[in-house]
Specification:
alpha/beta, Rossmann fold, OB fold (Dihydrolipoamide Acetyltransferase, E2P), 2 domains, 5-stranded parallel sheet, 5-stranded antiparallel sheet, elongated
């Protein structure tokens, strides 16, 4: 398996190269480039499986890679390297694009490469890059990328009815699909959507979209009925808070 590191800092390239060699035995060849355009030439010639791509480089940002490579030949997975803020990291996560946050740790590299290997060939990388660029240039995130069996599925926030914990998985109900099982725990989505006002966590096992509540039932300790007909528990410590929220949006 081949990889290329595109970064304008030679020390950063060397360090990442060492971390890849020490932690990712499936990668047997590593190429390097000091800017995007020379990196694109190597990509076209060597057809690497994984591209480690710095975002902030002179002349051309790593985000511009789609401007120089035809979308129909994007047959590799991208792992961005970045020192971006928490706001930007949210954009990466919502777009289902992996990243290594500088300073890079060995465990990060191994985890990112393992994910990339699973997605190669079915990742719709061009769609994900477009979503990432849109998110980074707008303060209004409106979609989330969900890793499914055959790639990445983008869903608008407003179409999500609820999320339910299922061990280390999450069951997501939307307006168009009854249920999507995602191989990430509920706490992952709670963290991602914490700044989206429509989402509320009434119980440790549920994250709901408040706009899809149809009823609050007082019996049996109190529970919520969602638009898809599912009942959602409310923890005792959240009941008063929830009733206040519902009164304010009613």
């Amino acid at each position: 398996m081949k990889a290329i590191i595109i970064d304008d800092e030679s020390k950063a390239r060397n360090l990442l190269g060492i971390l890849i060699q020490e932690n990712c035995p499936k990668i047997t060849q590593i190429f390097e480039a000091k800017d995007l355009l020379s990196g694109v030439e190597i990509i076209k010639k060597e057809t690497p499986n994984i591209v480690f791509l710095d975002i902030e480089m002179p002349e051309h940002s790593g985000l511009e890679i789609l401007n120089f490579i035809e979308k129909d030949v994007l047959n590799f997975e991208i792992i961005f390297t970045t020192a971006y803020s928490e706001y930007a990291i949210q954009a990466f996560q919502l777009s289902a694009i992996d990243y290594l946050l500088k300073p890079i740790r060995p465990s990060q590299v191994k985890e990112a490469v393992d994910k990339a290997i699973q997605l190669i060939g079915k990742s719709q990388i061009n769609s994900r890059l477009e979503e990432l660029k849109n998110s980074l240039t707008s303060s209004n995130f409106n979609k989330i990328g969900l890793p499914v069996s055959d790639g990445i599925k983008f869903v608008c926030f407003e179409d999500i009815i609820m999320m339910e914990a299922d061990g280390m998985y999450t069951k997501i109900s939307t307006k168009t699909e009854n249920e999507i099982l995602i191989s990430k725990p509920l706490k992952h989505f709670v963290g991602l959507l914490k700044n989206i006002p429509a989402f509320y966590k009434p119980h440790r096992s549920f994250l709901i979209n408040l706009k899809y509540i149809t009823q609050y039932v007082k019996s049996d300790g109190g529970y919520i009925v969602m638009e898809n007909g599912k009942g959602v528990s409310i923890s005792k410590e959240k009941k008063e808070e929830f009733l206040t929220i519902v009164q304010n949006i009613a």
